[in-house]
Amino acid sequence: MSDEVIRSRIRRLRFEHGEMTQRQLAEAAGCTRQTIIALEQGGYVPSLALAFRVARAFGLGVEEVFEFEPGDGD
Amino acid sequence: MNFQRMTQTRVRAWLATIVWTISAVGFFLAYFSGGGPSEFDTDSRRHLAAAAAIAFGFAAYWSGLWLTRKREGQVVADERDYQVVARASQATLIVVLVIVFLMCTLLWLIHEAEGVVDVGWMWFLAYGCMLLALVTNAVLVLVLDRRTGGHE
After folding, report:
1. What is the per-residue pLDDT across A13-61, written as a single tens digit (0 to 9) for each?
2. A30 vs B75: CB contact, 8 Å cut-off?
3. Residues on chain B bordering chain A, Cβ-to-Cβ distance under 8 angstroms
4. How many whole angstroms separate alpha carbon B9 and alpha carbon B77?
């Protein structure tokens, strides 16, 4: 379970959405800019609710924004 | 260090770290100066100095909370902040428990032969633990906030 990784495509998606700033995305997703930075750097795994809010801010589904990599045990 | 770009949680953790560290240093100086723990409970000047150090802490911290209050329409904290604060509180509890245990054990070991512990040490245990908890919690919030990748 510790090998599981959740990666996000937030940085790329921001640029694909008219160079959206971290602050704009944070406001759209209802979180702080520091959390967006943390998500982009992979330092924080969001709750399901936040993942949905971020995905909606881009008009996408959760799995188009976040990628789940199962560990060796799965 | 740009406070404008930090979350409210991080700004308040910095505030608490600085304020309560100053307060703790003031308290320890007042407590250990003069006759030390054995005369603290009868020395009203040192009592006053220790009380002033702690009063400074509360006044400065509450003023800081007011200055960093939530403004209209601002997202000041989110789930990551709540998670960081919760984990810091859990770790603080363990740190304080361990240090209180070690302090009490040390006092017992030192004074075992005499069979009594100076009552002045109770002041140190009471206020020292409070200040230790406040400083530890603030520092742990800063550490965990950094570890969860919220830095630029």
Report:
1. 999 999 999 999 999 999 999 999 999 988 889 999 999 999 999 999 9
2. yes
3. 5-7, 10, 75-81, 145, 147-152
4. 7
Measured between beta carbons, the chain A residues lying within 8 angstroms of B10 are: 34
Per the structure, the complete domain to which residue B56 belongs is given by: 3-147
B152/A32 touch (CB, cutoff 8 Å), yes or no? no
The whole-angstrom separation of Cα B4 and Cα A73 is 44
Q: Assess contact for A10 and A65: CB atoms under 8 A.
A: yes
pLDDT at A5: 82
User: CB-based contacts of B49: which residues, under 8 Å, 6+ apart?
Assistant: B26, B29, B30
Integer Cα distance of B19 and B134 in angstroms: 10
Q: Name every residue in A having a CB less than 8 A away from some CB of B.
A: 26-27, 30-35, 37-38, 41-44, 46-47, 49-50
CB contact under 8 A, A42 and B80: no
Query: Is the residue at B102 inside a domain?
Result: yes
Q: At B148, is the pLDDT very low, low, confident or very high (cuts 50, 70, 90)?
A: confident
Number of domains present in the structure of chain B: 1
Percent composition of chain B: helix, strand, coil (DSSP 3-state, to 5): 75, 0, 25
Q: Is the dihedral of CA B140, B89, B23, B34 positive or negative?
A: negative
Residues B10, A46: C-beta atoms closer than 8 Å: no
Residue B152 lies in a domain: no
ipTM here: 0.76
